[in-house]
Specification:
The chain crosses the membrane at residues 29-53, 65-83, 95-113, 125-146. With 156 residues, the protein is mainly α. It has one domain. Helices cover 74% and strands 3% of the residues.
Length: 156
């Protein structure tokens, strides 16, 4: 079985790769297929290139948001699934950082065409990427809070 951290990193590279490393070929094929379907229909690679060139308005115009909205949930679910299958996430509620990342990145996608900080528009790549940070933080915080709440009654 593959190392859970290695699988997680390959899943970050492309949804489905972690499943391939875990020997879950059917799941891997499904995730890779869905990634390509969403990527092509959202025009995601072109949007990434425009964003990296600093052409945020162009990236916004190129984005098909109705398709892009599927990407965060697919991406983070595939990461969690591969990580879990590789033996990671053995702690209770270890899925919460993945769930909250998917949620916050989806919200980042929704507001990415209008949300500005100090007059700077982040667009459909940079704002969702920044939204990973509060997703991880809140997911980990909730894991800790729930764990304490559950352990407290057991110890009394």
């Amino acid at each position: 079985m593959a190392n859970s951290k290695e699988v997680l990193l390959w899943s970050i590279a492309l949804p489905g790769f972690g499943q391939f490393l875990n020997g879950k070929l059917i799941k891997g094929i499904v995730f890779v297929f869905l990634e390509f379907l969403i990527n092509v229909n959202a025009n995601f690679n072109v949007v990434i290139i425009s964003s990296f060139h600093g052409e945020i308005e162009k990236a916004i115009a190129q984005t098909d948001y109705l398709w892009l909205m599927f990407y965060p949930c697919l991406y983070f679910f595939a990461m969690w699934d591969a990580y879990k299958d590789a033996g990671g996430g053995n702690r209770k509620y270890s899925y919460l950082p993945f769930v909250f990342c998917a949620f916050f990145v989806t919200v980042g996608c929704i507001y990415s065409s209008t949300f500005k900080i100090f007059g700077f528009l982040f667009g459909p790549i940079w704002l969702p990427i920044l939204c990973v940070i509060p997703g991880i933080w809140i997911g980990l915080l909730l894991m800790k809070i729930i764990k304490k709440a559950i352990e407290k009654p057991e110890s009394q």
